[in-house]
Amino acid sequence: MDKKARIGILGAGASGMAAAIAAAGCGAEVTLFEKEERVGRKILATGNGKCNLGNLDFSVNQYYCEDKEKLEKMFRVFSVWDTISFFESMGLMVKSKNGYLYPYCEQASAVLDVLRMELSRKQVRVVTNTAVESAVYRSESGVFELTDGFGAVHNFQKLIVACGSPASLKKGEGMTGYRLAESFGHKVKRLLPGLVQLRSDEAFVRALAGVRCQAKVTLLTDGEEQAAETGEVQFTDYGVSGIPVFQLSRIGAAAVAEKKKVEVILDFFPDQEEKAYVYMARQRFELQQDKTLEEYMTGLLNKKINMVLIKRLGLKPDRKAAETGWQKISALMQECRRFPIHISSANSIENAQICAGGIGLEQISTEMESELVKGLYFTGELLDIDGRCGGYNLQWAFTSGVIAGRNAAGCSTRAEAEGSEPENEQLKGGPKC
């Protein structure tokens, strides 16, 4: 392929910029289109403004994907170690905080700055404030013909679609990539919110709004346990939030969409062994029988949680513990370990950090190329691959972007993907970060 192949890339998010840098690094002539005024806007919001680039605790099991064997081949080509090298080669110092990778300065703006500088250094043509409305492949000339919102036509030999998803955007935005995929014959699986809050129709949730606490969160669908996470839970006036809820939300959103009964069970004492907990509860009853039930619960959990627990069991907060009796007190203490909340829905995609669903992995090769249209590539959230909190989604953006960019420019990664995993001294001792 001509080293000066003309490549068009739609979307200047994390995967689009990575693709542009990789393609230009292989000698291609690259044009990067972005509908917004500036590139990489979403990057600034990642990791609470610090940008969690990736995670050393890496496994394909951190991802929802129907073909993890294929996914693993892709991460063999561009791994978390390659992400570190990629950014360090551009001048960004990377550090690890308990395995979570961040820029040393802990500023997401620095990540965006080095990417922008590298685009300039690699002479990538960046066209902002320009949305591409349609794209067709002209087989007679072997080019992709793009028409932008101003009516201008652009021709490229290869096309990389990296438009991203509707996650965290205004309603109706972020669908361009899926529409283009469908126009080329691809099937798009139902889009669902991921890494998002869960909503409940329980009347008591409003009373808990603003409360934060440590808890184990177990998600059940039709009464069967699906997964569990432990961490800080945040109650809102419409349901539950927090990292453990986010980690489970993808499963919950899918189950609700399938009309299944969904609930989360909260254990407010996740670090307590059951035998020790029962002993503590009994001792507490023996020592504090003269207190009212409200007083009896003081010092265990947040006052708002205590009152919801008491009232939910139909108990009277001003009644003495002794009068309430051990049987009911025991039931109250067990409720602290198995507190059910019915989930009516997940928050909308506009509130989500990522989007689940999209183009199935069976429709693209390990080189990120369409199996239907040669020379057409897809990256990032457009594909039906989404990861957990912790830098995994940005890692996928960089991996898919670099693979697409290299292959579109003629630097094939097929041998790397299909070969055995190369030895890497960094894998033995960990990264120097």
Written account of the structure:
The structure is a single chain. The protein has about 425 residues and is of the alpha+beta class. The chain is about 30% helix and about 25% strand. It is built from 14 helices and 22 strands. The protein has helices at about 15-25, 70-75, 80-90, 110-120, 175-185, 245-255, 275-285, 295, 305-310, 320-325, 325-335, 390-410, 415-420, 425-430; strands at about 5-10, 30-35, 55, 65, 95, 100-105, 125, 130-140, 145-150, 155, 160, 190-195, 200, 210-220, 225-235, 240, 260-265, 340-345, 345, 355-360, 375-380, 385. The strands form 6 sheets. The protein has a 7-stranded antiparallel beta sheet. The chain has a 5-stranded parallel beta sheet with strand order 7-2-1-11-21, sandwiched between helices. A 3-stranded antiparallel beta sheet has the order 3-6-5. A hairpin with a 4-residue loop joins strand 8 (about 130-140) and strand 9 (about 145-150). It is elongated. It starts with 5 loop residues before the first strand and ends with a helix. Residues about 420-433 have low confidence and may be disordered.
Number of strands: 22
- Rough outline: elongated
Question: Termini distance?
Answer: 38 Å
Q: Assess the beta-strand content as a share of residues.
A: 15-25%
Structural class: alpha+beta
Strand sequence of the main sheet, in spatial order?
18-17-14-15-16-13-19
Helix content: 25-40%
Radius of gyration: 25 Å
Give the number of helices: 14
Poorly predicted spans? 420-433
**Major beta-sheet overview:** 7 strands, antiparallel
Average pLDDT works out at 94
